[in-house]
Amino acid sequence: MSTIEKLLAYQQEDGKLFDIEKKLNESDARKKGIQATRFLRSVADTLAGIESKAQELNTAYELAQAELQKIDEESEEFKAIAQKVVDEKEISYLKGRASKLAKTLEELLRKIQKLEQDMNELAVQYSKLKKETVAYQEQYEKSGAEYAKLKEQAVPVRKAIEEKLKDLAKDIPPAIMEKYLEKRKDKQFPIVYKLTSKDKHCTACGTELSLKQLDELKKKDNVFECENCRKLLFMEG
Questions:
Q1: Model pLDDT for residues 173-204, shown as the tens digit of each residue
Q2: What is the pLDDT of residue 86?
């Protein structure tokens, strides 16, 4: 058996392992676990934002209430003064003040109403976040248990494949095996691609190969690394 044939046999067996890994990675349990993890990691920042906004609204609300109390006090003083005034100029002046005070009061009441509305909306947002956090914590625990079970079920098959791969790797030149395993870590699969004597392009990515590269590939049991996609190429004899 040639080096290429041994490498292809290794890849064929490794494909079974890759399929197991793919099924685990694409399982609902893992996807839900990742979703829950991302949400739970973002909760602290979201909660900090809500607390900061709540503090801001509370401060604004307290200032508005203090301003409202001041206007109420001014209104009482204004009523007391207005009852004693008889001069037309003073009455006209007081009417102007009353109109301005009424406008200020109207604007302030609108501001307070908006603040109360924002505070209520923030309370709803906080309540929703609390419920979602509990739900995602449960989802995280459940999906974690399910994923662990799936991994455990795959252990016997994985071990058998890994043992076979160890045996196959013994007959493959270390330099080639090292390149293969390096790409395997990057979740690349397949890793080894075949070219025929008619091929002028990488059969993995389509990049045009130079004449020098093609000549190198024509050498028996030679494996070439594509400069573009980094896949391993060999030419069928």
A1: 999 999 999 999 988 799 999 998 889 999 99
A2: 62
Is the pLDDT at 125 greater than 90, yes or no?
Answer: yes
Handedness of CA 141, 19, 38, 127 (dihedral sign): negative
- Among 186, 177, 187, residue whose Cα is nearest residue 232: 177
Instruction: Kindly state the DSSP code that residue 207 receives in the 8-state scheme.
Output: P
DSSP H or E run through 100: helix 88-169
Q: C-alpha dihedral over 175, 176, 177, 180, to 10 degrees?
A: 130
Residue range 92-119: mean pLDDT, rounded: 86
- Which of 6, 66, 24 has its CA nearest to residue 153? 24
Quick check: helix, strand or coil at residue 195?
strand
Beta bridge partners of residue 232, listed in sequence order: 192, 225
For residue 40, give the H/E element and its range.
helix 28-84
As a whole number of angstroms, the distance between CA 93 and CA 91 comes to: 5
Contact of 176 with 195, CB cutoff 8 Å = no
Peptide bond into 156 cis (omega under 30): no
Asked if 234 contacts 10 with a C-beta cutoff of 8 angstroms, the reply is no
Contact 196, 218 (CB under 8 A): no
d(CA 24, CA 155): 12
